[in-house]
Amino acid sequence: MSWLFVLLQQLKQFVVPLLVLVFLGRGDRNQLWSLIAVGGFVVVALWRYLTFRYRITADSVVIDSGLLERSRRQVPFSRIHNVAIHQSLLHRLFGVAEVRLESAGGDKPEAQMRVLQLDDAIALEALVRRRGAAVAPATVAAETMAPADKTEGRVLLALPPAEVLRLGLISNRGMIVVGGAAVAFSQLNPQLPDDVSDRWSHGLEAFFGNLHFSYGQYALAILAALLGFAVLLRVFSVALALLQYWGFRLEEHGRRLTVERGLLTRLRTSAPRRRIQSWTLRESVLHRWFGRRTLDIDSAVAENGNQRRGLRELAPIATAAACDTLVRHLLPGAAWPPERWQPLHPRAWWRLSLPGAVVALVLAAALCWRLGAWGLAALAWLPWAVFVARQHARRAGYAIDDRLVAARSGWWSRRWRFAELDKLQALELRQSPLDRSLGMATLWLDTAGAASGPLRLRYLPLAQAQALRARLGREVARRPLRW
Amino acid sequence: MSEPNPTADATPAPDDWQALPARARTLFVGSTALGFALAATVAVVVLCLGARPSWLSWLLPACVLPAAAFGAWLGWRRYRHTRWLLDGDGFGLRRGRLWFSDTRVPGSRVQHLDIRRGPLERHFRLATLVIHTAGTRHSEVSVSGLDAADAERLRDHLARQTDDDDDAGD
Lengths: 483, 170
Fold this sequence. Notes:
- The complex is a heterodimer of chains A (483) and B (170).
- With 483 residues, chain A is of the alpha+beta class.
- Helix content of chain A is 47%, strand content 25%.
- In chain A, the strands form four sheets. A seven-stranded antiparallel beta sheet of chain A has the order 6-5-4-10-9-8-7. A six-stranded antiparallel beta sheet of chain A has the order 13-12-11-16-15-14.
- In chain A, β8 (249-253) and β9 (256-261) form a beta hairpin.
- In chain A, α6 crosses α9 (215-245), α7 packs across α9 (215-245) and α12 packs antiparallel against α13.
- The longest helix of chain A is centred in the middle third of the chain and has 31 residues, at 215-245.
- Chain A is globular, with a radius of gyration of 28 Å.
- The two termini of chain A are 37 Å apart.
- In chain A, 31% of the residues are buried.
- Helices cover 46% and strands 25% of the residues of chain B.
- In chain B, α2 runs antiparallel to α3 (53-80).
- Chain B has helices at residues 6-9, 23-47, 53-80, 119-123, 148-164, and strands spanning 18-19, 83-87, 90-95, 100-106, 110-116, 126-133, 140-147.
- Chains A and B meet through β17, α14, β18 and α15 of A and β4 of B.
């Protein structure tokens, strides 16, 4: 049956040209061509199916593949950072799944089994879990004594439908749909936007011309349109969240974490706990209204565009207490949240308000040039920028102990970014001319697979930054890299 | 809290930080000057595409020479403010004065090392050392204009450190 899925995969890439061939090429000769193309794909798919073999040895997965050029790939269990089981609707109809084994870095999966029976896929995942544990370094051997072989894991977080609904309301995923629709629209029919906007404006003119709206009514109409758009956005967001996060479950199987989610397409990814490179906790204004936060992790599995291949979301949505409990559970012995946050440089607010101030000044200058003295109104932005910067600086800070280093930032949208000292890579202390004049510096702490942005301690007093750099440098050099 | 001169204050023992060899200065100054001169030439030619050719004859030197001089000055500064360090913790690199950066690669985080030598670098007995880590932003720290012997010594030393904890890479 595998050849069917390979075929579909290939057809997906050629679906547009094929449709064009079938529907636009009105003539017997052209239809023949499309048939030949499909026939060709079937042959290639069958060939792939017949030449793909995988087997399990004591410590690795060996994959033989290739049409004309044969290749053999050996993936040691201990190098597999992430196992992803993907089931589209079609897969589910046939009771099969696609399995991807990911190692650190690299821009494509280490191994990809297009179609396995679901039982086999789960068995393979369990095998990787067990064997990976068996060859892991001795330091983590103690953890593997925990019930690692049980297929039934411990549920750390499950999202009931109500939570998924909240997630939809908080997230801005609807923008993806709107943006995608706009792009598709303009791609399919380049002359359409002009055409449509012309027709619409004519229609609107006729409509409003007849009704003779006053200014207030115009404003009301625009407001209603904006409100409608916002509601539509939320509806899309909720729909997407339901599709993607329905039945979200975070489970712990011994040392491994497994996430399962999806309404139609089911996704199941699993990665060992110690592969987590860094953590991000987020809280936007909407999050705060609902009393929720989002907990993400970075793993060393490379992100490829918008295709999320590794384990990424530990808690798409959860209460602050639940997030903290989860962190404490997964980082035993770490003090989270830190008891004391160190403040930034006393004049950090000055530095933070600078971009806003520059924008306000440039805007005011530009408006003055066009509108005269009225442009000075833009300067009203200045106090607001300063206020926001002061709030931000007051809340921002960093914390460090012998296990974790953490930075928090933001005022409206808050962010906590933290990592274990073991997982830090290169360290960099940086100073711009402005930083130097204020006697501050920023410390960049690099981690592997930092997709959520760098971990940086911004605008510290210079002496503190230097002391921290020296301390962290010593600590990191002392600790062997275990990823 | 503010300290007037971070470069001086940050140094634990000033002689630990190594400067690049004097031979590298020619390379730094020359390459940056050439880069700026080329950029200026292209800019002038593109901007004056419609103008009379006689203009170019004086406009070109008038723009390119200052650009080259500026480039030379920048290259010289870049050379002067680059310092490296090898200590028990790993490798350190300092760059710039206006835009100061101090990068440390702990020895235990070095993944692999490259030495690159272009024809010009070979002529001056220089080399570029590239240190790779598993990180994201600083996954590649490269130091150009190192003395060739120094570069090899650095590579061997850092490579030995990665060998020590190779078993932990699994």
